[in-house]
């Protein structure tokens, strides 16, 4: 896609393949962008392990517990496209720095919470500033690394952070909760944000605002409302039945609002999400891949965490450490995919292969039982699943933002992050409902007071979640195999990065 004219922003580097050579600190920029992205990604899981401690301390009910997670994802998921367009209109550096300061302030507020309401407010504020921060970070990466080889390396690192951030959050959350206090799962973000702010403020070149550009207010209201309803509806599925109007009513409203948003984008002069961003087949396939991977990955992080702690009896720190081999396998898959496979054979065989391998690992996980051991039973499945995810994550995120004009870099990046958040919300609701139904079915006709029966019911519920995660990945294999174009993506020197 070539660069547009009237709405293009002044970028710190020329938009051609050699521009990377004019950014001498680009690798340090990658470090600080990576720190910020890690903070945002791990915050989706770091609080999970701390929830029981926070609940005892602040005295909120089991029914309210889910809102500590949902408040973050609601604000984050529904405002991401707005955050991406703000980055394009007002400058990526400024948006990135404002997001860092706001995220740090919200985290400090949450860590100091004296009641449930204060904690929820802080989590929602984290989501709001995360919606500014995440797309600005990815668009800065997209416009900083325009040399194809260097861009591959940069997105390999970014993909590892995106894929492994959840596992790192579990480990860090367990460590901080066990040895310090649950409040440090929020305070630690201040440390990340300060480091990223100092580095980014010194090294990032400032991008100028296009004073002629305007924000699409109707589009913003439609898409934010639609995404809010989708995330809220799926979140309600965990506490309400799928037949409840609180579930399907919000889902239907969300779909209708997003349909209206799509129609409006074809009519307005300054669209929030120009449909040209979605038009490329490789980019569209990458959005789908990120959505499905994010939905299915909860089958690993969420339910395998329960299995390791409740069935194997691991401590929070030990359960976090148990995921590290998966991170190593994910890193290996990312390096092989981005550096060797994609440049030679393109994404069409690679991304479906990765989803297929991950699906096989999840099916293998359904064999876990009460007598399984970590080294002989859990570790091999983790390695296979992590390797498959590594083949998918980095190339999908890279291809989802390649070839867009500079004026669309922020909103394209926001769309990737939106796919992650919506996918995670769908995965959490769907898999939690499936797991709950499986446990209920197993307990039918059995003694619910028997510890062994209850433990086996839990194992059955986890197995159902792994199975449905594998189904999601298998669907992704088919969809991505059909959508991705054959061959290696070609370079276009007139685009921000590699043209698809």
Descriptive overview:
This protein has 17 helices and no strands. α1 runs antiparallel to α5 (116-144) and α14 runs antiparallel to α17 (451-483). The chain is globular and about 70 Å long. The chain is mainly alpha-helical. The chain has two domains: 23-215 and 272-483, Up-down Bundle (Growth Hormone, Chain: A), CATH 1.20.1250.20; 216-269.
Topology:
Blueprint: H1 26-42, H2 51-58, H3 62-90, H4 92-111, H5 116-144, H6 148-179, H7 184-203, H8 217-236, H9 245-265, H10 276-279, H11 281-311, H12 316-322, H13 324-345, H14 347-365, H15 374-399, H16 409-443, H17 451-483
Helix pairs in contact: 1-5, 1-6, 1-7, 3-4, 3-5, 3-8, 3-16, 4-5, 4-7, 5-16, 6-12, 6-13, 6-15, 8-9, 8-16, 11-14, 11-15, 11-16, 11-17, 13-14, 13-15, 14-15, 14-17, 16-17
* N-end to C-end Cα span: 8 Å
Helical content, roughly?
over 70%
Supply the CATH superfamily name of the largest domain: MFS general substrate transporter like domains
- Judged by helices, strands and strand pairing, the structural class is mainly alpha
Short key terms for the protein model shown above:
single chain; 500 residues; mainly alpha; Growth Hormone, Chain: A; 2 domains; 17 helices; 75% helix; disordered N terminus; disordered C terminus
């Amino acid at each position: 896609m070539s660069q547009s004219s009237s709405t293009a922003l002044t970028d710190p580097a020329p938009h051609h393949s050699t521009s990377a050579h004019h950014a001498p600190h680009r690798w340090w920029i990658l470090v600080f962008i990576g720190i910020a992205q890690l903070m945002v990604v791990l915050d989706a899981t770091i609080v999970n392990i701390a929830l029981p401690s926070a609940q005892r301390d602040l005295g909120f009910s089991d029914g309210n517990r889910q809102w500590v997670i949902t408040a973050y994802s609601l604000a984050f998921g529904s405002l991401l496209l707005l955050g991406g367009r703000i980055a394009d209109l007002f400058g990526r550096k400024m948006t990135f720095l404002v997001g860092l300061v706001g995220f740090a302030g919200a985290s400090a507020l949450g860590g100091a919470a004296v009641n449930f309401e204060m904690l929820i407010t802080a989590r929602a504020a984290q989501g709001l500033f995360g919606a500014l921060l995440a797309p600005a970070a990815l668009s800065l990466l997209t416009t900083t690394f325009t040399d194809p080889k260097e861009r591959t390396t940069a997105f390999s690192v970014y993909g590892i952070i995106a894929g492994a951030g959840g596992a790192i959050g579990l480990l860090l959350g367990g460590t901080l909760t066990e040895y310090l206090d649950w409040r440090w799962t929020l305070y630690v973000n201040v440390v990340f944000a300060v480091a990223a702010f100092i580095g980014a403020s010194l090294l990032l070149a400032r991008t100028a605002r296009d004073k002629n550009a305007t924000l699409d207010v109707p589009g913003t209201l439609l898409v934010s409302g639609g995404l809010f309803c989708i995330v809220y509806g799926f979140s309600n599925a965990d506490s309400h039945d799928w037949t409840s109007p609180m579930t399907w009513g919000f889902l239907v409203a969300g779909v209708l609002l997003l349909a209206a948003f799509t129609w409006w984008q074809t009519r307005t002069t300054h669209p929030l999400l120009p449909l040209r961003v979605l038009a490329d087949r490789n980019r569209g396939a990458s959005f789908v891949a990120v959505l499905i991977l994010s939905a299915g990955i909860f089958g690993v992080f969420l339910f395998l965490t329960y299995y390791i702690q409740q069935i194997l009896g691991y401590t929070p720190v030990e359960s976090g450490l148990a995921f590290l081999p998966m991170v190593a396998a994910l890193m290996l898959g990312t390096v092989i995919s981005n550096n060797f496979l994609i440049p030679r054979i393109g994404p069409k065989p690679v991304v479906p292969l990765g989803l297929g391998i991950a699906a096989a690992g999840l099916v293998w996980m359904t064999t876990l039982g009460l007598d399984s051991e970590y080294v002989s039973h859990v570790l091999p499945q983790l390695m296979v699943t992590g390797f498959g995810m590594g083949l998918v994550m980095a190339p999908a995120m890279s291809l989802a933002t390649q070839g867009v004009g500079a004026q669309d870099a922020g909103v394209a990046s926001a769309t990737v992050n939106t796919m992650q958040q919506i996918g995670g919300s769908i995965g959490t609701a769907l898999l939690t409902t499936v797991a709950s139904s499986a446990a209920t079915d197993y307990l039918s006709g059995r003694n619910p007071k028997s510890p062994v029966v209850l433990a086996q019911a839990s194992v059955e519920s986890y197995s159902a979640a792994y199975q449905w995660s594998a189904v999601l990945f298998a669907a992704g294999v088919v969809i991505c195999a059909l959508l991705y174009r054959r061959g290696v993506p070609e370079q276009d020197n007139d685009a921000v990065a590699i043209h698809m």
